[in-house]
Amino acid sequence: MTVADTTGTSASPTDQPTFTAPKPTSAFRLILTLGLAGLFSGLITVLVYEWTLPKIEAYRAQQLQKTVLEVVPGAAQMRALFQDETVPGGWRIEQPKAGAGPTPDLFAAYDDGGTFLGFALRGEGAGFQDVIRLLYGFDPGQRKLVGMRVLESRETPGLGDKIYKDQNFVAQWSDLAVDPQIELTKDASVIGANIIHAITGATISSRALVKIVNQSNGQWLESLPEPAPVEPVSSAVETTREDG
Amino acid sequence: MSRSEADIKAYDEFIKGIWKENPVFVQVLGMCPMLAVTNTAVNAIAMGAATAFVLIGSSFLVSLLRRFIPKEVRISTYIVIIATFVTAADFLLQAIVPAIHKELGAFIALIVVNCLILGRQEAFASKHSVRFAVVDAAGMSVGFTIALFLLGAAREILGFGTLFGQSLFGPSFEPWVVMILPPGGFIMLGMLLLAGNAWKQRRLRTGNRVRKVA
């Protein structure tokens, strides 16, 4: 009420003739303006996206291969595995390639002597803000996770981004049983081989990681191939050079 | 307005963004990226460059289209224009400098809500010719980048003991970890604002003594 009264007194009759209502713009013009803005915005966005995509994908592939060696401790070389029904055993095994191309379903990691160490599996799912992409190492002998790295995320800075910045949290994933499945708890007193303790202030992001890994485990763990040893690292390097 | 007068005015518009109306130290705008990504000098410069790209591009377009954009939908149109430049900057950084893009993370996308950018469109670009709008945006961008760099360099030197990744003090230096954490950003920004205002006050006082209007 007070506000209305004040306005009433301040608008004296002498002010009124100077005030002319602006001519309203037609609805058609408003829609046209925003429509055109949206159209050009979309066009430009798609053009930039198409132009930058190959470079972004090549970098992703390179990062992915680098991370494989990080999530499986002791790993020095790897093979890319593609699920392929036409091949005996159901898996096509290749040398990892540089540059853009189809992303392998999983990686097999070996030490420099060629002994099989474990698999690196990819996971992907909704985080708090955007898709979280991650990679984790799995030792099929012990049925344990041996390491995990977040490849891409847009979680809240200072809170959700602790899923990769908080080293204590990340360390929990390097010795983690997968059976019956990974569980998340907020209670510090709960301890178990398959327990992940959520980050304070980032419960949703922590839960997202557990869900992504469990989902990926459900998809792959039962159909993993039998790993065969490969050549020691020196000959593997030569092979790569011949390919390149 | 003669040619040289216009040049002087353009020069003034450019300089005001760096000094008299510095977006960070005077207008105190754009604090979110200012505090969040200035823990190293490189991050600060990358953020400054991305903001400059968005600000100059948007100011150019908004000024160019200022007679066609109806007043009722101007804010939404500005935001669409700004968002387009931000998305482009996001993809370009990801393709050209992926390591820095990862470091800046969500803050690249958040440039779209940097009040400095929308503020310049509404307060300046929508009312001035393309030339002045671009000059104003360039001045603001340089002022913003300088402020980010000052804060980033100071925090990197104290927090890591390095500048651009080069060690400055040798291995015996004990880094002030707080400086690279959020509180360090607030502390350092506060000190920079304090120093700037103290300098301004001093100049004002000496100016009054010689009976000059500052």
Main features:
heterodimer, A: 244 residues, alpha+beta, 7-stranded antiparallel sheet, two-stranded parallel sheet, 6 helices, 38% helix, 22% strand, extended, disordered N terminus, B: 214 residues, mainly alpha, 9 helices, 2 strands
Short summary:
The complex is a heterodimer of chains A (244) and B (214). With 244 residues, chain A is of the alpha+beta class. Chain A has six helices and nine strands.
Give structural notes:
The complex is a heterodimer of chains A (244) and B (214). Chain A has 244 residues and is an alpha+beta fold. Chain A has one domain. Chain A has six helices and nine strands, in the order H-H-E-E-E-E-E-E-H-H-E-E-E-H-H. In chain A, the strands form two sheets. Chain A has a seven-stranded antiparallel beta sheet with strand order 2-1-3-4-5-6-7. Chain A is extended, with a radius of gyration of 28 Å. Chain B is mainly alpha-helical. Chain B has one domain (3-205). Chain B contains nine helices and two strands; from the N terminus they run H-H-H-H-H-H-H-H-E-E-H. Chain B has helices spanning 3-18, 31-36, 41-64, 74-96, 98-104, 106-109, 115-123, 130-160, 182-209, and strands spanning 162-163, 166-167. Chain B has a two-stranded antiparallel ribbon with strand order 1-2. In chain B, helix 4 crosses helix 7. Classes of the chains: A alpha+beta (244), B mainly alpha (214). The A-B interface holds A 22, 24-25, 29-30, 33-34, 37-38, 40-41, 44-45, 48-49, 51-52, 55-56, 59, 63, 129, 153-158, 161 and B 36, 68-73, 76-77, 80-81, 83-84, 87-88, 91-92, 94-96, 98, 105-107, 109, 182.
